[in-house]
Amino acid sequence: MISRSLRSSKTFITLVVSVSVFTDILLQNLVVPVLPFALSERVGLTDSGDIQRWNSILLSAFGGALIIGSLFFGYLGDRIPGRRAPFLFGVLVLAASTVSFAVGDNLPILLAARILEGFSAAIVGTLGSALLRDTFGAEHIGKAMGYTSLAVTSALLLGPAIGGLLYEYGGYFQVFLPAYCLLVVEVILRLLIIEKEKPLTPRLHEHSAFKENPVHDGQVGNVEQGPGGPDPDSLDQAQPGEPEAQQLLPKTTHERPRQALLILLASPRFLVAMIGTFIVSCIACGFDGVLAPYTSDTFGLKATHAAALFLSMALPMFLAPIPSALTDRYGAKLPAAAGFVLAIPSLTLLRLVSPGTDQPFVKLLILLGLAGTSFAFTGPPLRVEAARVVAAIEQDRPGVFGPNGAYSQAFGLINASMAAGSMLGPLYAGYTRVWLGWGAMSLSMGIMSLMMLVLVLLVTGGRKQGQTCDG
What we know:
This protein has 471 residues and is an all-alpha fold. It contains 18 helices and four strands. The relative contact order is 0.14.
């Protein structure tokens, strides 16, 4: 029997969220290499143009559902008292998606399955991150985010490979066998979670203090109370019977809860975190649409070479715990800036790998490996920065987000930014390469990284800035 202390421990909750992220990403990518065959063999499409079009539609539907779902479930997560119930609902959505893919033999079912996958990813990305924040606090969430980044990388590497091998040697239905096993494990783990209570806002702490003080002659504690209840103007005034030490404490003003999304979008620090997440996702996913065609057309490299190049970008994500630990210690500015400093030369120098270049494969391998390392150093810190902005605003303006805070909505916006980048990245890179060339594309990526470096240095919070509200 697993003890309650273990089920509510930081280690166990980190494990559950990491496994959830791994399962979700793995199941999304299991079907990626199989989709064209499902469209031809199960749906019955015969025209290659139709297969390509619907394959793109299904992939885009996931991104669209992820954006909408991140905003919706982020809002919902801050309106309900706990994370566990919607987090458990997420695995049921993923199960429905997996079964739909397995049995689907027409376009509406496959489309619905892909949309459900996007909603499931949104739930894990928003509520899973919010659950980690509730467990670790905004100042120590970086290390946990590092482990979830490892889970993402592992799933991205294993998903397409496992799906392709199972389809090749087993068949269509065999592709989903690992999914069913992981879903059972997921349900058990999410049921076992005992989450910590959401931290009360200062406003709620104050009300709790009122309730604990005895009531005497129309007074609650030392606050004067009229016929209609406590006088709001007396809340922040020293009372005659109040101890002198209490009178010397700084008085806190409280704001009525306001629309969290508007407050977050008005924060320069949060906007920089969103823009940075979008740009990193846009650049990283941009290579999906151009790397294999460019290396094949220009240098005659095979698919195995392209796979190795993609692998060189993905493997550095195993370094994610390093910038995550640095974020906990020094704030997001240092690791994020280091990542963009590395991205500028590595992305810009890709333009030199052009027709006539000696050993293009080796040079691409090195430069893309450095680019992947820069992604590892920028992604997790920007996500942690989003949580710290919420904490800073709540500390500076207690009660402004209401009793449940705004962490789910913050992570929802970050998730939506990442999804938007993953959708637009291949289009941006593809059209830029076709119209302006490979060199212009890589140069534009370097310029975007330089712009982000400037924004991070000017706006993103460091360790001492972590609890200072900017907007």
